[in-house]
Amino acid sequence: MGGASHAYKEMAFLKRLKKEYMELKKSPPPGVVLDDSVLENNITNWIIHISGAEGTLYSGEQFKLNIKFNDKYPFDSPQVTFIKPYLPVHPHVYSNGHICLSILDRDWSPALNVSSICLSILSMLSSCTQKVKPDDDSMYMRFAPSNPKKTTWVFHDDSV
């Protein structure tokens, strides 16, 4: 019985990814392009190209995201990182591409999807007023796990 349950979960997970893939190809958020050449080999590892929005600090700049899904998606957030050298200098983006963004951690919901992740990242970039690395970038880089989901993030509103 356990094997059948696992197979069903895997089918649901893959069905969800295929649906999101089709939606993102058909109607991506502005400035977002899915690189589907990677998907031919592995539907659980996506590359997304993001263009900085006009009128922002990142206008005209191009970035790349790597989104890795596990079989618990959408109940567990995907692993999302910027890919070097296509990562922005931003207070919430570390030099290894890790992103400190609450929807990728404690504020994740199965109602969210790849489009909403991309929109949140675009919003994070668009609202930035100064191109600086995170204050603790050098310390984080010394001890950071390879998977950002293994980081215990402290968000600004945690200290309130």
UniProtKB/TrEMBL annotation:
One Gene Ontology biological process: protein ubiquitination
Give the domain of life.
Eukaryota
Q: Where is the UBC core domain?
A: 12-160
Catalyzed reactions per annotation:
S-ubiquitinyl-[E1 ubiquitin-activating enzyme]-L-cysteine + [acceptor protein]-N-terminal-amino acid = [E1 ubiquitin-activating enzyme]-L-cysteine + N-terminal-ubiquitinyl-[acceptor protein]; S-ubiquitinyl-[E1 ubiquitin-activating enzyme]-L-cysteine + [E2 ubiquitin-conjugating enzyme]-L-cysteine = [E1 ubiquitin-activating enzyme]-L-cysteine + S-ubiquitinyl-[E2 ubiquitin-conjugating enzyme]-L-cysteine
Q: Is Transferase set as a keyword in this record?
A: yes
PROSITE patterns in the record, alphabetically?
UBC_2
Record SUPFAM superfamilies: UBC-like
- Transferase as UniProt keyword: yes
- Name of the protein: N-terminal E2 ubiquitin-conjugating enzyme
Q: Name one GO molecular function term.
A: ubiquitin conjugating enzyme activity
The alphabetical list of record keywords is: Transferase, Ubl conjugation pathway
EC identifiers of the protein = 2.3.2.23, 2.3.2.25
